[in-house]
Write a structure and sequence with these properties.
With 635 residues, the chain is mostly beta strands. It has one domain: 8 Propeller (Methanol Dehydrogenase, Chain A), CATH 2.140.10. 6% of the residues lie in helices and 31% in strands. The strands form 10 sheets. Strands 1-32-33-34-35 form a 5-stranded mixed sheet, with no helix packed on it. It has a 4-stranded antiparallel sheet with strand order 2-38-37-36, with no helix packed on it. The longest helix is centred in the first third of the chain and has 10 residues.
């Protein structure tokens, strides 16, 4: 596979492209199809990442009439995270490992047209990748279907027949580097990312010709300038990036070679600037002593990290879709020690900031803070604000861009090194707790744990001006330890403490046991949460919005697919599927009728339901199963 081009080669490529950066258009077929709301040709529906449909037959007045039109048993019992595609009369579905692709005839209530089964080492992929069987996307362009398998293959299929047109290998699964399916088709390129930071993989974005599958460019999250795409177009705003080799100089020794920063969330694309926007995973290994001078941390007057910030893990990135060249970057959590990675979509919206319309990129980050940037330059346009509780930061310095760290939450391998910075006692922090047998004195308890939110799709409504996101109130604890890097083996170097921290609300006080997550509606202009709806389960599910002020999402505690009023969060319709939800609903039009579709799915485990189980026990409402449900209005 080709390695990143030198900057001179990048500039030559731009010249050959005939100035695409200024007047770029995506694949013409994708643009045409995505303008018709009857189709769904990519995750989150459109390049701007809104997950918003302009279809309007189903509205607040008639949504209660939604009923099942047809169902289909998918047959693979696992967590389905990739939403279906719809192009014309055909729906396309991809399953979790073993990553089968199905084409369904929508004129015949989902009769299968064809099925494609890739050749892949499922056992190796299962053993090597973190956290499940993720596959998060199918992509359509020019009569072809594109996707990535969990073990790192990229495949192009004929959309009519399911015939494999090309196949290439983009990652090394033997070393723990896989793919979660996150990608995008822009121009003649299928552009994807990698996973596997917990195995020591270095994050990368890589692009392939949609007709041949040949690699066109590869750019890394960290490393020397020619491998990260840093050149004349890179205009740093904040001081941590203003060094000769920002992806190299900000790392201790050669720690960048196993630095993490992988790309397993969704991408968005801006045709005016030709920039792909995305964010990167956590720094690896998680123990920060391996990425800085051992046992030391260099802070400024506001407790922001000055040196060894470890660019660009846990960072917001903007690259040229044509060449991969880096244009701007912003690091959320310099020298990240808390697994606060950012596998999140970046909606691109126009906002009135201070009386002036600005083209922005926005993000409700995994740290719980909400960000608004100028999407062409990466400058923060508003002060980041806390939308879910965070006790790692006390705020963000608008001049340096650095978060102001709470010194009590910084990890060190040695308790002696930690005491040089803080006298915090991790057990005393947990009032009444006894020291566990494995107590080290280096335990750190923090919120939002590892996830104020996760990869799941947001929804942006231009009608309400609100971003809809599921957030998590879970807090967590870490203990760092020493380990040797061995290719293909785990390299996290942290573990959970025997003591766990309760969920906390915005005031920092413990929440009730049933307040584990909430659906939030956030206003990026006023920096306020307009409304939120609480759930008694870690209900981080994707959200879809429509032009009729409806939100659709799944409630994992009850097994219900729900429709809510986007203006106030009130439930206006629900249907119990008896399973869970890990993908976004979609809505499409067929034969002049609007439909809503979702796959309800559950990983292959069932908990026995006791006769005395609580009436609202989740196990009463969700069981093993993988079923496509399609709904429509009567008539």
């Amino acid at each position: 596979m080709k390695i990143a081009k030198t900057i001179s080669a990048l500039l030559l490529a731009i010249g050959i492209a005939g100035g695409l950066a200024g007047t770029a258009v995506a694949n013409d077929d994708v643009l045409k199809l995505s303008k018709d709301p009857a189709n769904v040709v990519m995750p989150s529906i459109t390049y701007n990442g809104w997950n918003y449909s302009t279809l309007d037959q189903i509205n607040l007045g008639n949504v209660k009439g939604l009923a099942v039109a047809w169902t289909m048993q998918i047959g693979i019992l696992d967590s389905h995270e990739a939403s279906p595609l719809v192009v014309g009369d055909t729906m396309y579905i991809v399953s979790p490992k073993p990553n089968y692709v199905y084409a369904l005839d929508l004129t015949k209530d989902g009769v299968m047209k064809w099925e494609f089964r890739p050749t892949m080492d499922v056992a190796l992929a299962t053993a090597q990748v973190c956290c499940g069987a993720q596959t998060r996307g199918l992509y359509y362009a020019e009569g072809k279907i594109f996707y990535a398998t969990l073990d790192g293959q990229l495949i192009g299929l004929d959309a009519k027949s399911g015939e494999q047109l090309w196949r290439t290998v983009g990652t090394d699964i033997a070393r723990g580097e896989g793919m979660s399916g996150n990608a995008l088709v822009v121009h003649n390129l299928f552009i994807g990312g990698n996973s596997g930071g917990e195995r020591g993989a270095r994050g990368k974005m890589h692009a392939y010709d949609i007709n041949t599958g040949k690699n066109q460019w590869t750019m890394y999250s960290m490393g020397p300038n020619n491998e990260t795409g840093v050149g004349p177009k890179f205009k740093p705003i904040y001081p941590n990036d203003k060094v000769p080799n920002p992806g190299l100089d900000t790392w201790w020794g050669e720690s960048w070679k196993t630095g993490g920063g992988t790309l397993w969330g969704y991408f968005t694309w801006d045709p005016e600037t030709d920039l792909i926007h995305y964010s990167t995973g956590n720094c690896e290994p998680e123990n920060p002593d391996y990425r800085r001078e051992w046992g030391k941390i260099d802070l400024d007057a506001n407790n922001g990290v000055k040196s060894y910030s470890n660019n660009w893990c846990v960072s917001q990135m903007a690259r040229s879709a044509t060449t991969g060249e880096l244009v701007w970057a912003y690091q959320f959590t310099p020298q990240d020690t808390w697994d606060l990675d950012q596998p999140l979509i970046t909606p691109l919206v126009d906002l009135n900031i201070g009386g002036q319309m600005r083209k922005t990129a926005i993000k409700f980050s995994r740290t719980g803070f909400f960000y608004v940037w100028d999407r062409a330059t990466g400058q923060m346009l508003t002060e980041p604000w806390m939308a879910e509780y965070n006790d790692v930061y006390t705020g963000v310095d608008m001049t340096t861009g650095r978060p102001k760290y709470n010194l009590d939450k910084i990890l060190f391998t040695s308790p002696e090194d930690r005491k040089k910075l803080t006298n915090a006692d991790p057990v005393a922090e947990r009032a009444g707790a006894n020291k566990p047998a494995d107590y080290t004195g280096t335990e750190v308890f923090w919120c939002p744990g590892t996830a104020a939110r996760n990869w799941e799709n947001d929804a942006w409504s231009p009608r309400t001006g609100l971003l809809y996101t599921h957030s998590d109130t879970t807090c967590s604890s870490y203990v760092p330890f020493m380990a040797e890097y061995k290719p293909g083996q785990g390299y996290t170097t942290t573990r959970q403490s025997s003591l766990n921290s309760p969920s906390k609300g915005m005031d920092g006080k413990p929440l009730a046991a049933n307040m584990l997550s909430r659906l939030q509606a956030n206003n990026p202009v006023t920096s306020k949460t307009v409304w939120s709806k609480w759930y008694n389960d870690a209900n981080r599910t994707p959200v879809m919005a429509t032009a009729t002020d409806l939100l659709f999402h799944g409630d994992n505690a009850t097994g219900n697919l729900e429709a809510l009023d986007a203006r106030d969060g009130k439930v206006v319709w629900q249907f119990r599927t008896g399973s869970m939800f890990n993908q976004s609903p979609i809505t499409y039009s067929q034969g002049g009728k609007q439909y809503v579709a979702i796959i309800a799915s559950h990983r292959p485990t069932n908990t026995a339901v006791a006769a005395n189980a609580a009436a609202d026990a989740a196990t009463r409402y969700r069981r093993i199963g993988t079923t496509m449900y399609v709904f429509k209005l009567p008539g």
